[in-house]
Request: fold
Amino acid sequence: MQYINRVIDFIINLMAGIAAVIMAALLVGICYATFSRFVFNEPLARIVELAAYSLIYITFLAAPWLLKQRGHINVDLILLALKGRAKRGLILFTDFIGAILSAVLFYFSYLITLSNFMNNVRIMDSSNTPQYLLLIAIPISSFFLAIQFIRFIKEDIVALKEGKEGEQ
Reply:
């Protein structure tokens, strides 16, 4: 099990690294497009499309890593009022809901991505991009989100049995 966890962590970190590289490339591309427009009077039309598409990848590839760090925004109002097992129980409940929602998102995004691939659906853009290339990040990300939530559930159950206070 420890080997599987290391593989999952490696993949999640790799996805976050890819998101960081895409973000850096996007920064360079937008700077170059701005420079090209004002200095050479030659705007790059595709950079706006690439920026929009890369934001999808950045968001979905980095989401499992952010979840693993418990870096998502939390509403602590209720958590601050709770102590001990009640707090850990609420964290367990929210992790359970997150796992279910991520699994549902994985299932439906997988079906839609597969359908777009099988039917050769294309986006009406300057490159005639196959739509599945944009959507594929969603089922991949939601799969790893679901796995991370399941890992949290396991940690929460162990912590409840040991009587540890909830930490989010």
User: Anything to note?
Assistant: Residues 67 and 150 are 12 Å apart (CA to CA). Residues 2-162 form one domain. The chain has one domain: 2-162.
